Amino acid sequence: EEGIAIPILFGNKATIDDLRAAINFDDEVEIIDPxxxxxxxxxxxxxxxxxxxxxxxxxxxxxxxxxxxxRNYYASMMIKNRDADAMISGYSxxxxxxxxxxxxxxxxxxxxxxxAATNLMLTKSxxxxxxxxTINVDPTAKELAKIAQMTANTSKLFGLEPVIALLSFSNFGxxxxxxxxxxxxxxxxxxRSNPELMVDGPVQSDFALNKEMLQKGYPFSSLSKxxxxxxxxxxxxxxxxxxxxxxxxxxxxxIGPILMGLSEPIHVLQLGASVEEIVNMSAIAVIxxxxxxx
Length: 294
Hints:
Order of helices and strands: EHEHHHEHEEHEHEHHEHEEH
Strand order of the largest sheet: 7-6-8-5-4-9
Distance between the termini: 26 Å
Helix content: 40-55%
Largest sheet: 6 strands, mixed
Radius of gyration: 21 Å
């Protein structure tokens, strides 16, 4: 109805047709069940290509043929071989089981060492990106810097000029604990490698989001006169807990997680995502595909 994309559904055709009938949905939609004999030739083709990439990583051709019966492997190969433009998955399976086939099939973007994820939170104060919400458990200083760079690029896709705060429990060197020093090191790396970026830290979250507090306590910070729209967290605990709290307390509409650092436009839903979340992620995938295929 909204003209976002032309969908291709993966799963058991009879089950999908029953669900379509239950909601009186009779539009023509392509349905692919990789297990069906009708897709054997394409399945074997993808298996050969996958095996050539993975044969020195412990996979046999038989392993590849078996994996191509699974929808996330098959669909990822469709994207890799330009048989489809973008992909979203994860509604009915846990995040890790969906991400694994994607990371094994799809290469990282040029210059990327680690894939990460961000959530776009639509708050009453404006849009806010939170990173890394689902992938990196305890990123190093270098990885935090890369996560900040990738989130900056993602925010630009949405027409936002990134203003980035790297968060910590301390403010600007007030703590000597290694967890805080890691964030300081990441900020120093960003100032050297990306002097054009508006980024600072380590800073506590309330100071980052309250200009008056920041101006009064730390007027030297480049963020003190800016409205922060990107928060980079020091670890996965902090980021994941924060975005889910905001979402469940109805403080923000969450769009994501948006995968960053892949060479192809693929994104993973949270288990049991709502219809609105699926539609929003489809739109994100389309924007990502348009950007990557320029």
